[in-house]
Amino acid sequence: MLQSAELDAIRDGRETPEDLASIVIPHYRTPDVARLCLRAIRRLTDHPYEVIVVDNHSDDGSVEALREVRWIRLLARGPETEPEAVYAHASAMDLGTREARGRWLVSLHTDTIVRRKDWLGAMIGRLKAAPNAAALGAGKLDTDPGWYRAVKRLWDTHRIKSGLRRLAGLPPDPRLEPKPWYPRSYCAVYRLDLVRDLGLSWQPAPGHPTGELLYRGLVDAGYEAVRLPPEKMHAFVEHVAHATALLGRGGLGHWRGDAKVRGALARIMGSELARSLLADDSLDR
Fold first, then answer.
1. Are 102 and 50 in contact (CB under 8 A)?
2. How many CA atoms lie within 13 A of 196 on its CB side?
3. Looking at the whole model, is its pTM more than 0.85?
4. Where do runs of H (alpha helix) occur along 100-211?
């Protein structure tokens, strides 16, 4: 764990370690989950880092709660923030990327909780070991039991419909085909200088989620990625997908999805690690 004096010096720009990682975290109305996310980073990160939290105009007291965390850089966006979550998230990432001072750019969600002390150093080490790689990450972090994932693959309606189209001699329907891989933004590492030199943005486009076009820009420029298997990423971090949609934006629009997120949140917030972190106010200083 880095000492408070070192984090304060990095935050204020008085020190910029050579291997500094800039962790950018968009935020919208999830103060309790964000507190857990930040305290986990504080306790479990030894590699030099700065944390830039970009608040997308929360109106629930979140900004005041975040200001209590003294070692982060908090950027509060105004009321002109985009109403659609995907664009607000991308704009927050673009703002954090512009403000970053490190060699490495790390995208993280407030509902991503780091689990191991070597998480950041290990990821950066993997990226350093691949000279032509400009990014490191994983696909969707699916922590459902193996039997459940197998059943989902067996009864994947998109896969079945796509197969039937091929048997019928029909052209592929892009909506049914597997989505191309890209580092999901819940936890990914990039070479910041390349992102800036190539003028890349986090903004999405129809059919392309946040971060995919940024990654495609790196690939088009001749760079590769270090692809972590989901189980390897899960050894480093826990991710409660869609927690912001549930807590900050009123839900996912269907009760089954909401119930799944609530269950995942209850499991994380009730874990031994979470209880220990939330009891330790010193991690805010």
1. yes
2. 14
3. yes
4. 119-128, 146-154, 157-167, 192-197
Which residues, other chains included, contact 183 with Cβ-Cβ below 8 Å and sequence gap of 6+?
135, 136, 137, 138, 190, 211, 215, 225
Single-letter amino acid, residue 239 = H
CATH homologous superfamily, domain 4-139+181-284: Spore Coat Polysaccharide Biosynthesis Protein SpsA; Chain A (3.90.550.10)
Handedness of CA 227, 233, 236, 239 (dihedral sign): positive
- R_g of the chain computed on alpha carbons: 19
Q: How far apart are CA 95 and CA 76, in angstroms?
A: 10
> What span, in angstroms and rounded, lies between the C-alpha atoms of 78 and 82?
10
CA gap 101, 35 in Å, rounded: 23
For residue 219, how far is the Cα from the chain centroid?
A: 20
In degrees rounded to 5, what are phi and psi of residue 205? -145, 165
Q: Measured between alpha carbons, how far is 112 from 24 in angstroms, rounded to an integer? A: 12
Neighbours of 107 (CB within 10 A): 28
CA 247, distance to chain mean position in Å, is 17
Q: Computed from CA positions of residues 3, 63, 183, 160, in that sequence, does the dihedral angle turn out positive or negative?
A: positive
Boundaries of every domain in the chain: 4-139+181-284, 144-180
- Model confidence pLDDT, tens digit, residues 116-170: 999 999 999 999 999 999 999 999 876 555 544 444 455 556 566 767 777 778 7
